[in-house]
Amino acid sequence: MILDLARFVEAERPHWTALEKTLDWIATDPTRKMSLDDLEAFHTLYQRASADLGKVATLASEGELSRYLEWLVSRAYSEIHESRDRRRFRPWRWFTVEFPRTFRRHSRAFQLSAALTLAGVAFGALALRIDSEARYVILPFGHADMSPSERVAREKQEQGKQLAGKKSQFSAALMQNNIRVALFTIALGMTFGFGTLVLLFYNGVILGAIVYDYIHGGEAIFLMGWLLPHGVIEIPAILVGGQTGFVLAYALIGWGSRISRAERLRAISRDVVTLAGGAALMLVWAGIVESFLSQYHEPVIPYGAKIAFGLVEAALLTLFLNRAGVGHVGQAILSPASSRS
Amino acid sequence: MIQSRANSLLIRTPEGIEFALPLAGPFSRMLALVVDLAAVAALSSVLEKVLAPLLVFGQDVTGGIIILVNFVLAVVYAMAAEWLWRGQTVGKRLLGLRVVDARGLRLEPSQVIVRNLLRFIDQLPVLYLVGGVACVFHRHRQRLGDIAAGTVVVRTPKLARPNLDQLLAGKYNSLAESRHLAARLRQKITPEIARIALESLIRRDQLDPTARLALFAQLADHFRALVPYPPEVAEQLADEPYVRDVVELLYRPSGSLSATKTPSAVGQP
After folding, report:
1. pTM score, two decimals?
2. Predicted-complex ipTM score
3. Which residues of A touch B226 (CB under 8 A)?
């Protein structure tokens, strides 16, 4: 193509500048709505820049100009052709409506997560029942060094005094560690779910071994009083982490899906974020309870009160995850990949 | 429509226009990561000093807050920066990199969060080995977090036009007299050769005299063979002036730099 470049640039530059200014204006507030007239003008500028790029791309000498126009067109393209819903983030609505609804939409992934953990629990308990030496391999945090009765006696004597002056730091460390585990469980979904599966089963094995050890040692009440207040939130939070990992894995594998892997992953990205955020919030609460309540035993806090607290929490969590957001008028985030898992 | 060409992501718009996003390589991304880790460490150090007055509430409370702040900083820093700076962190800014949507669309908050959440697996087993290997072998240079989020990291080099006035000023261009031959020259020369000729002129004083002669002879022979000029025009010019005149025809077809200069915002996001 033979083009009078000087005249061309002189004629088109005002339009490019206008497009650039419009894009900068959009960048300052991505949620701002444009009027119909503005949209039409923006679209015209985009089409004009696209046509100019088509002309300039054939010229040998205009590599720089071509790259400038490519950058301009790519920016405008991302705004013009974006059709995904962009709503202002409302934390309360997100937690009380989006999170439970997303949880329910992927309930089968949660069930798989729970089933794997339960299988691990059964395996851990069975391992200790069949071979008592297994406790030295399975039990963590020095649980194997003393019998449950010895541990209970020590805990009752200390009454959380070992944490005196460290409760906040202990709570923060618990939150950090548990959130790390949950996020890691989610990330392992990228191993086509295999890593998530192994981690959930392994967590179950440890839990099953501890539960069996305490029940077998005649300390079931102490165990419930110690574990329930924080465990009824912490364990489901890890299961939600596993659920999220499986949602990711399902999109990655795409059984029976006709859309591309990239499209499937794109469709569930918002759900992954919602579930991960929900699990993290649950773990913040669990960390506070574990540090400030779980470490105190009778006679400071009666076991009955701690167990009741745990049961109330469990009931409220179940109610929240199953009923919150039901019938709420709003936009559902439906996607081909997510609706099947 | 998305295609991949050597180190770039080509996107064809519904209007039939194609644009390329130059993909960032693993090395520049690693350098950006190192800068970001340093930035997080510096921020953490500053925040610990800022939070020091909280000691009036006790060492335990302050210690707990510092543990949480450091954790949140490590997890949230890249997410917040990439969202607020439209795909850039401190490291990416310094290295001229940017995270963009792999389809050329707008970067969504969920994409930013997912690609950063999955760092937990990309950094396994040590020093981002999983992410690095994925980045080397993936055709779009994506680590696992990028694959899950549908993002790519592209280079955003600043484009600067050389000062052609200084380079070509005050020289009579005999090749410009034959307008039809000049137009043919502009049509036939590829962008790569045009860039080589321009760079050769810019760096000519740094070249070894023998290499300089050989280079301009090669370029001039190529241009002479591409579009033969009448002998009275072509033969009176030595190799280097010939190349200079060709470059002027390509980059300043009208002879006026101001007319061909690209808008001042070139290369700015």
Report:
1. 0.78
2. 0.85
3. none
